[in-house]
Amino acid sequence: MTAAPTPADYAAVRQRSADLVAPLSPEDACAQSMPDASPAKWHLAHTTWFFETFVLEPNEAAFAPFHPAFRVLFNSYYNGVGAKHPRPQRGLLTRPSLAEVLAYRANVDERLQRLLAQRGDDAQLMALVELGLHHEQQHQELLVTDIKHLLSCNPLFPAYHALQPDAGSGPAQPLTWHESDGGVVEIGHAGDGTFAFDNELPRHRVYVQPHALASRLVSNGEYAAFIEDGGYRNPALWLAEGWDWRTAQGLVQPIYWHREGPGGAAWHEFTVAGLVPLASALPAVHLSYYEADAYARWAGARLPTEAEWEHAATQQPLQGHTAEGRLLHPQAAQGDGMAQMFNDAWQWTQSSYAPYPGFRTAEGAVGEYNGKFMVNQYVLRGGSCATPAGHARATYRNFFPATARWQFSGVRLARDV
Q1: Using 50, 70 and 90 to split pLDDT, how confident is the model at 249?
Q2: Pair 197, 146 in one domain
Q3: Which of 118, 152, 186 is at the close of a domain?
Q4: What pLDDT sits at residue 318?
Q5: Which of 322, 329, 241 has its CA nearest to residue 289?
Q6: pTM of the model
Q7: Is position 351 within any domain?
Q8: C-beta of residue 378 within 8 angstroms of C-beta of residue 348
Q9: Distance CA 31, CA 38 (A)
Q10: Is 163 inside any structural domain?
């Protein structure tokens, strides 16, 4: 996507969402597997609601909503806009139908494209459209992870698509350590005219202690060794809240891992291609912060800070396995140097999600986008295999509560030197 989105950019992003839902039945698209996830149909409607509410309503001559009720039904968390349908009850919205939601998208797309043709030189308008497209790309990633969680709840373990991850052969490549002298470094978006979310600003200086980062993500084989060594049974490895959560949930393995075969001897992993044998060399994903932190402690290491991660990431090429590859699963590390920095798995950091020095929220309802969530969450970096192409960058800050496991979240180890 260019800095100033074109009509073609808009059409491509919107089509990508429709393509992601195309393999689903209307029943698939309506179901909600847990309160943190949303139905695919709701994602399609909410991203359309964003354009209708924040772009068309204040800018379209003689604006009229596609359907007045949609203003409440498909509002997510924008209190400044008005009432919202309760998030845990989104799966109860059997009406409007998927067909009507698709008609809603077509209607808003036609009107938006007409507005772009008339006012493509309006910088303020184009900034809103650009935000809306990046917002939709965020929801495209959520579409994938929410669909995967939904299908994992089905004992048939149905596949979302047939393309299986390339398991490679043998164990993961050796893990090495890359040291940094630390010092005063700059992090945050440079404000150079390219897109960034408000939580990436402003750029500022931080002091980083000397440290080392692992050359790749923790592999399935390494995480399996943690399990076999009693990692889920040893409270000394866990934060107190993490141990209480693990105990209350009865957790003994990652969310999508299953024991199969005679005596349950062989690990399998649920993927978007269904249940497949666990590949030792692939990154361990769908781990909570608590699991990531416990593993790091077991390994004699720790999680990186977001400043350590970003300082290293800015020196690496922005490449990886994006959602357009359609495998929708991280791949084994390859090559020398720092591997898997981008677009394989989101990487937990030990940094709490908080505003940067000098952070200011935007005026109006759009200002609710990130700032009000800066509490009780941790920062993840790097993008995942479900992140759309061109969406990840070194300064991108994702954030989730410590219990979140349904995202493609993995572990890159750090240690002090």
Answers
A1: very high
A2: no
A3: 152
A4: 83
A5: 241
A6: 0.96
A7: yes
A8: yes
A9: 8
A10: no
For residue range 109-133, list pLDDT tens digits in order. 999 999 999 998 899 999 999 999 9
What's the Cα-to-Cα distance from 118 to each of 10, 64, 115, 126, 308, rounded to whole Å?
15, 18, 5, 12, 45
Going by C-alpha positions, the residue among 325, 21, 345, 28 that lies closest to residue 163 is 325
Q: Identify whether residues 313 and 376 lie together within a single domain.
A: yes
Residue 168 confidence class, pLDDT cut points 50, 70, 90: low
CA distances from 99 to 18, 24, 80 (A): 12, 13, 29
In a domain, 277, yes or no: yes
Structure confidence at residue 163 (pLDDT): 75
Do 187 and 138 share a structural domain? no
Lowest-pLDDT range of 149-158, 167-176, 229-238, 247-256: 167-176
199 and 237 co-located in one domain: yes
- In this structure, what token pair is assigned to residue 113? 């494209």
Is residue 374 a contact partner of residue 354, using CB atoms and an 8 Å limit?
yes
Same domain? 146 vs 181: no
Domain with residue 110: its CATH number is: 1.20.120
Query: Does residue 168 lie within any of the structural domains?
Result: no
Residue 105 sits in which domain range? 7-152
Which tokens go with 82?
A: 């008005």
pLDDT digits (tens, 9 = 90+) for 275-310: 999 999 999 999 999 999 999 999 999 999 999 999
Distance CA 126, CA 139 (A): 20
Q: What is the DSSP string of 168-199?
A: -SSSPPPP-EEEE--EEEEES---SSS---GG
